[in-house]
Specification:
It is a single chain. The chain has 11 helices and 13 strands. The protein is of the alpha/beta class and 305 residues long. The protein has a single domain, classed as Rossmann fold (3-Layer(aba) Sandwich). The strands form 4 sheets. The chain has a 7-stranded parallel sheet with strand order 3-2-1-4-5-6-11, with helices on both faces. The protein has a two-stranded parallel ribbon with strand order 7-10. Strand 1, helix 1 and strand 2 form a beta-alpha-beta unit. Helix 4 packs parallel to helix 5 and helix 6 packs across helix 8. The longest helix is centred in the first third of the chain and has 22 residues.
C-alpha cells in the first residue's frame, strides 16, 4: 500500500509512519517540525495553505490517507478556538472530500474526549457531549468527515508512547519526572484507556487491510485512573511510585475542562478484526522494551538537521 500520514512529526504520526514503513510505501507530512529520517518520505507542507491538500494527494497518489495532524493542546485550543476549528474541523472535512474524489481511502484520527465522562463505558452509538474547545472541534471534524466521505474510517483513540521531543505523551511525562526524582500529580478521578502508539499503528494497518469503514473506538482493552497508570509505569521501570501524589483533577490547576470517565468500549472493532486489543501490561512492557533498545534516543535524533 501507498500510505500518506499527516502530522508525521507528532507522537502518533511519527510512530505510525515508522511502523507502517516497514512493509509499505509511506509519505509523511510535516510543517513546523522537520523530521530527519530515511525510513519514509518526508514532505514539508502547510496543509492550511490554498491548494496544499490537492497538490499533496496528486504528488503522493496514496491508497490510504491517515490524518493525524491536529491542534491537540487543550489549552492552546481554548486560547485560539478559530485555529482549533481550522485544524480540527475544516481541514479534516477538506481532506475527506478530496481523498474521496481521488479514489483513496481515509482513516481520520479523533479522540475519546468527545464524551463528557459522566457515564463511562461508551460505545460508538452513544451521544457525545464535548466539554472543551478541543473536544468540540474534534467532534465537529468527525461529523464533517462522515458527511463528506461516508467510506472513511473514524478512529477515536487515547495513546501514549515515545515522541521526538519527549513531551507528547502522559507516559513520557511520568517517566521523565519520576526518573529525575520529581514528584508528580496522578489524578485519581480521571479514567482512560491508554493504548501504546506502536500497538495502535499495527491495529490501524489491520483496519486498512480489512477495508473497514465507519466509526470505531481504538483504545486499550482496560480502563484505569491516571494515578494507577502512573503507578503501573513506575513499577514497570522500577521507579519510585511514592513520588506520585494522588490528586483530584479539580486540584490540578488545569485550564480546559477534562472528562472524568473516558472508559470506551472497543467491542465493535474486536469483532470486526476477530482479535482482542492489547491490554495495558503488554503496552507498558513494550514501552519499556523500546526504552531499553534506545528507541527514544533514535527518534529524538530525527529532530536534528
Amino acid at each position: 500500500m501507498r500510505i500518506l500520514v499527516t502530522g508525521a512529526s507528532g507522537l502518533l504520526g511519527l510512530n505510525l509512519a515508522l511502523e507502517t514503513a516497514k512493509e509499505h510505501a509511506v509519505f509523511g507530512t510535516v510543517n513546523q517540525h522537520a523530521v530527519n529520517t530515511r525510513a519514509f518520505t518526508v514532505i514539508q507542507s502547510d496543509l492550511l495553505a490554498p491548494g496544499a491538500v490537492e497538490r499533496l494527494l496528486e504528488q503522493t497518489q496514496p491508497d490510504w490517507v491517515i490524518h493525524c495532524a491536529a491542534l491537540a493542546d487543550l489549552d492552546a485550543c481554548e486560547a485560539n478556538p478559530a485555529l482549533a476549528r481550522q485544524l480540527n474541523t475544516e481541514l479534516p472535512e477538506k481532506l475527506a472530500t478530496y481523498v474521496d474524489r481521488g479514489g483513496a481511502r481515509l482513516l481520520h484520527v479523533s479522540t475519546d474526549a468527545v464524551f463528557d465522562g459522566r457515564q463511562g463505558s461508551y460505545r460508538e452509538e452513544d451521544e457525545p457531549n464535548p466539554l472543551s474547545v478541543y473536544a468540540r472541534t474534534k467532534l465537529e471534524g468527525e461529523r464533517a468527515v462522515a458527511e463528506a466521505n461516508p467510506a472513511a474510517v473514524i478512529a477515536r483513540v487515547n495513546l501514549f508512547g515515545w515522541s521526538m521531543y519527549g513531551k507528547r505523551s502522559l507516559g513520557e511525562f511520568f517517566f521523565y519526572n519520576l526518573k529525575a526524582g520529581k514528584e508528580v500529580m496522578g489524578f485519581t478521578d480521571v479514567y482512560f484507556c491508554p493504548l501504546l502508539v506502536n500497538h495502535l499503528a499495527g491495529i490501524m494497518v489491520k483496519i486498512m487491510e480489512a477495508g473497514l469503514r465507519g466509526l470505531y473506538h481504538v483504545v486499550c482493552s482496560e480502563c484505569l485512573s491516571k494515578y494507577d497508570f502512573a503507578v503501573a509505569l513506575a513499577r514497570t521501570f522500577e521507579l519510585d511510585e511514592n513520588l506520585i501524589r494522588p490528586t483530584l483533577v479539580d486540584q490540578g490547576g488545569l485550564k480546559a475542562a477534562r472528562s472524568s470517565n473516558l472508559n470506551l468500549k472497543a467491542d465493535k472493532l474486536t469483532q470486526a478484526l476477530g482479535e482482542p486489543l492489547p491490554d495495558l501490561p503488554t503496552g507498558l512492557q513494550h514501552f519499556y522494551t523500546l526504552y531499553q533498545q534506545g528507541y527514544p534516543q533514535r527518534i529524538r535524533q530525527m529532530s536534528e538537521a
